[in-house]
Write a structure and sequence with these properties.
Blueprint (H helix, E strand, L loop, with lengths): L2 H8 L3 E5 L3 H13 L3 E5 L23 H12 L4 E5 L5 H8 L4 E4 L4 H14 L5 E4 L12 E5 L2 E5 L13 H19 L5
Parallel strand pairs: 1-2, 1-4, 2-3, 4-5, 5-7
Antiparallel strand pairs: 6-7
Amino acid sequence: MKFDEIQRVLETKVVGIAGCGGIGSNAAVALARVGVGKLVIADFDTIEETNLNRQYYFYDQIGLQKALTLKDNIQRINPSVHVDAHVVSLDPKSVTALFSRCDIILEAFDKAEMKEMIIETILSLMPKKPLISGVGMAGWGRNETLSVERHGNLFIVGDRQSEANEEYPPLAPRVGVVANMMANIVVDIFLGKEY
């Protein structure tokens, strides 16, 4: 399939991204570069200097809202991608309101309780909608431990065990690999790959 044929398929699709940090910002950029038609992104947080080691932001954007700034960065990469950016702390009600019209949802939260909330919300209220979640990407190296595990419409990407902490921080290479694996699953699904 040629790139223009791929783009014709992808430009009709809508992807929701819950969280605009390391996973969310890098996955959004990858999807924008291949021409996904619309991204619905949501995050309540602002950019901090410590985010710059793995998130798709720039030094002069410190202090700005992640969702709104990511929208601006995506528009600079591919202005044909429509981006709906929402500055919001997500809960089951807002997840349903923001992402119900998306074809696929990416979960890109840092905190386990937020991951659990969105997974439970999507699986119970939108069970037919594919949900891609990143779990276990802290540190560096060990590419061979990263994999995709599928449970119905839930795809889990990562090693499912590397929890971030001060001694084992999330770093750009490994976070980027997982984010791009998640974006790649989106493209796979849209182009008809059977899992």
